[in-house]
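Ticket #4471: complex job returned nothing on first submit. Input attached below:
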Amino acid sequence: MPGTPQSLTLTADPASLGPVTAFLRKGAGEAHLPELQIRQLELVVEELLANIWRYAYPEGASGTVMVTYSVPRPGEMDLEVGDEGVEFDPLTAAPPDLTLDLSRRPVGGLGIHLLKSFARSLQYRRQQGWNRLSFGISANP
Amino acid sequence: MTIDRSEVEGKLVLHVAGRMDAESAAQFEAQCDACIAEGTASLVIDLGDLSYVSSMGLRSFVAVGQRLKGKGGELRICRLTGFTRQIFEITRLNQVFPIYDSVESAVLGG
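Support reply: We reran it on our side without changes. The output follows.
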């Protein structure tokens, strides 16, 4: 049925990237998203997953990540990425200084900037011990 | 992701194809480091067939670029296209690295 949310729950580690990408590609096919928006979607979710591997769970502890999507109408997907780890709102991260030359550029720090560039209506909430980040991807940004 | 190594006019060229993500970025960085360990000062990276790159891949570009700069060399990037070009533009890394339209022009530099 159109719009019915589909969810995938996995252990939060780098091995989850492949299954999550395959899961989202199925949804993107249902939404008839163009290839460019599919890559943008994959990037947004990869950046969120990487944050969860790094920050949500203390070193050595295992936790889960849940990815949910729905297709409200052709050309659009609504998504949510959730974890039960340490409270963390990635949207509060300071923006990177993109004017720095190579020698002064930090090696990291571009992931949040990229996800903010591609995801629409980004919203974070902490709910019953879960970090939940919701957003939309549209074929007509 | 696949990485093919070749030499053009005495310059090392790495042709990177496929997806550079959290799983594969380390492979790219290791290949670049192997070239640096052999004494290469400047590396040409051909991204014409790279369909996807995430921030984990960008970390590797910045790290390798800084290592080469520290040795008096540079990382030259050529054939940016599609999604990969978009990512370099959004992060302004296209203004940090010298970007060329072709392998040949990247090898010549300048």
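Residues 55-70 of chain B form the longest helix (16 residues). Closing as resolved unless it happens again.
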